[in-house]
From TrEMBL, chain A:
Residues 60-79 are annotated as: Disordered. This is ditrans,polycis-polyprenyl diphosphate synthase [(2E,6E)-farnesyldiphosphate specific]. One of its GO terms (cellular component) is endoplasmic reticulum membrane. It is an enzyme of class 2 (transferase). Pathway: Protein modification; protein glycosylation. GO terms for biological process: intracellular cholesterol transport; sprouting angiogenesis; swimming behavior. It comes from Cynoglossus semilaevis.
From TrEMBL, chain B:
It comes from Cynoglossus semilaevis. With NUS1, forms the dehydrodolichyl diphosphate synthase (DDS) complex, an essential component of the dolichol monophosphate (Dol-P) biosynthetic machinery. Adds multiple copies of isopentenyl pyrophosphate (IPP) to farnesyl pyrophosphate (FPP) to produce dehydrodolichyl diphosphate (Dedol-PP), a precursor of dolichol which is utilized as a sugar carrier in protein glycosylation in the endoplasmic reticulum (ER). One of its GO terms (biological process) is polyprenol biosynthetic process. NCBIfam families: uppS. One of its GO terms (cellular component) is dehydrodolichyl diphosphate synthase complex. Belongs to the UPP synthase family. Transmembrane segments: none annotated. It comes from the Eukaryota. SUPFAM superfamilies: Undecaprenyl diphosphate synthase. This is Alkyl transferase.
Length: 248, 335
């Protein structure tokens, strides 16, 4: 009997994985304007069936990988900088401090650099980048170079320098050996992050700023690889629709 | 309405529970029971009735957890921020709490039968005195039960809890019980209100909000977070199963992260101990360089002393906290 339940459990997990793969495949097909009409019709019929099987978490963003929606590639119209600024101003509220929490095993410097540059362009003052293995912490000079490169590529090079904080999973070792890890309170007066965008499959904060995330909104994006500006804007739009009562 | 809802699961629920139990199960689940007021509004009820329904749902959820062999549950019943609500609503919630804690004392035998230990975490001084006394009686009456644990966060915020832990550590250093170099992440964890419980494996928030609202921020750093859109009074057995399934899907990666964190903490502690030992040797030494053997012996000796200091401090802290509840009970009986 126990073995039977064990088998059923494994089957259940398999079904969930298949369902998730099917749902994300269907979403991509639905949104890709290149697909033929009948494919889209089939996909739209199958999608509700797939979704009924296992409700997705709310505030999960529908990814549009490869969608070419970067303002810098727009032909004619206002300059990319103005487009970013107007996108930022069109939102009801914009976070002053945004956090990117990468739970995927191998982070992509280019994609994170893109996110940082877009955030700066849209008008977000503080950007925190965190991963569980200290990869960004240990390679922050590489990330900084990538940010500079992407800034030139996306914006034409005239951006003001921003303070990119690297949060470590462990401690920064001081000479007197005092431990910092979770105990570190920011030495600068940076406001608490209002929004954290979590990338990857792990549904946990993995030790990200426990003190500071008291009122932070969490938005889940399946992956940071090939993340587009539209994805970031989607997350910011979701954030701007969140209402906080702060106990009241 | 009782704290413990009796009754078995139906056949389909039982089969589903058995399937889930074939996989890794959370040993401690935390709930942010959000959505009572919205539920009341949608169903044209008074807010107070929404909160009452919320309590009923809590009792039902505890029954499901018992059947799913989840021994510990922590719930966010009332935040310090909730004092900002209208006086009418706050009074209503205090009355509900009074009613329920008094009911708990009436059900003492039933709680003993099920081995339920109730703990209340928060800044209880903010509550009306009679409620504090009722809580103290309930906590002391169930103190030694050990089959399942219900932690009710009342007049609680995580930041207050963390600040309070630091205050206790400062008290410990002041009293000479511990040194400031003994302070570590582990020791802070031991000073929180939740120090008798393991960290939650799973945190569930209902009503669709995707924030932690100052709840168990320290303890849930490596927990599986599940946000569900259902309103708390409408929570179902299937919602709970869905959350547990989410936990099971994340189990391996979260375990890995927890292990990594634990190893890191251990290496930090060892490094700190080495530094303190080196300082002591330098201070008490006669200027001659020490050999590896002496250093190793000194290190082991230092670690033993530190652990003893910490144990004494934690015993003193426990005594202080137990005394708080005892004094309240004595006040209640003499009043």
């Amino acid at each position: 009997m126990v073995m039977l339940y064990g088998l059923l459990w494994r089957l259940l997990l398999l079904l969930v994985h298949v369902n998730r793969a099917l749902v994300s495949w269907l979403r991509v097909r639905l949104q890709s304007w290149k697909s033929r009409l009948w494919e889209r019709a089939m996909a739209s019929l199958l999608l509700p069936l797939a979704l009924a099987g296992f409700p997705e978490q709310q505030k999960k963003l529908n990814r549009t990988p490869g969608a070419d929606d970067n303002p810098s590639h727009a032909n004619g119209g206002p300059s990319p900088r103005l487009r970013y600024i107007s996108d930022g101003m069109s939102l009801q509220k914009l976070p002053v401090h945004i956090g990117f929490l990468v739970t995927e095993e191998e982070p992509s410097y280019t994609d994170i650099a893109n996110l940082v540059v877009w955030c700066m362009a849209v008008g977000i003052s503080y950007i925190s980048v965190y991963d569980n293995h200290d990869i960004f912490q240990k390679n922050h000079s590489r990330l900084l170079k990538e940010i500079e490169r992407q800034q030139r590529h996306l914006m034409g090079g005239d951006g003001h320098p921003y303070n990119v904080e690297f949060l470590s999973n462990g401690s920064d070792k001081c000479h007197n050996g005092k431990k910092k890890s979770k105990v570190t309170i920011f030495k600068f007066t940076i406001p608490d992050p209002e929004l954290v965008v979590k990338f990857g499959p792990v549904d946990s904060t993995l030790g990200f700023l426990p003190w500071h995330i008291r009122l932070t909104e969490f938005i889940f994006v399946p992956s940071h690889r090939d993340v587009s500006y539209k994805d970031l804007l989607g997350a910011l739009k979701l954030y701007s629709s969140c209402q906080q009562r702060v106990g009241q | 309405m009782s704290w413990i809802k009796e009754g078995e699961l139906n056949i389909i629920e039982r089969i589903s529970a058995n399937v889930l139990k074939a996989g890794p199960m959370p040993k401690h689940v935390a709930f942010i029971m959000d959505g009572n007021r919205r539920f009341a509004h949608i169903n044209n009820m008074e807010r107070q009735d929404g909160h009452t329904q919320g309590f009923n749902k809590l009792a039902e959820t505890l029954r499901w957890c018992k059947h799913l062999n989840i021994p510990e549950v922590t719930v966010y019943a009332f935040s310090i921020e909730n004092f900002k609500r209208t006086q009418e609503e706050v009074d209503g919630l205090m009355d509900l709490a009074r009613q329920k804690f008094e009911r708990l004392l009436e059900e003492r035998e039933n709680l003993e039968k099920h081995g339920v230990c109730i703990r209340v975490l928060g800044d209880l001084n903010l509550l009306p005195l009679d409620l504090q006394q009722a809580i103290a009686k309930a906590v002391l009456a169930t103190k030694n039960h050990n089959k399942c644990f219900l932690n009710v966060c009342f007049a609680y915020t995580s930041r207050y809890e963390m600040t309070n832990a630091v205050r206790e550590l400062a008290w410990g250093v002041e009293q000479g019980l511990i040194r400031s170099s003994d302070v570590s992440e582990t020791l802070i964890t031991e000073c929180l209100y939740s120090n008798k419980s393991p960290n939650p494996d799973l945190l569930i928030r209902t009503s669709g909000e995707v924030r932690l609202s100052d709840f168990l921020l320290w303890q849930t750093s490596h927990s599986c977070l599940v946000f569900q859109s259902v309103l708390w009074p409408e929570y179902s057995f299937w919602n709970l199963c869905e959350a547990i399934l989410q936990y099971q899907l994340n189990h391996k990666s979260i375990q890995k992260a927890r292990e990594l964190h634990r190893e890191h903490q251990a290496s930090l502690q060892l490094e700190a101990d080495r530094l303190c030992t080196a300082e002591e040797l330098q201070h008490h030494g006669n200027g001659k360089p020490t050999d590896a053997h002496t250093r190793q012996e000194a290190l082991l000796h230092y670690i033993t002393c530190r652990e003893e200091r910490v144990q004494n401090f934690l015993t003193a802290l426990k005594h202080k906290r137990d005394l708080f509840f005892h004094d309240l009970c004595i006040e209640a009986t003499t009043a």
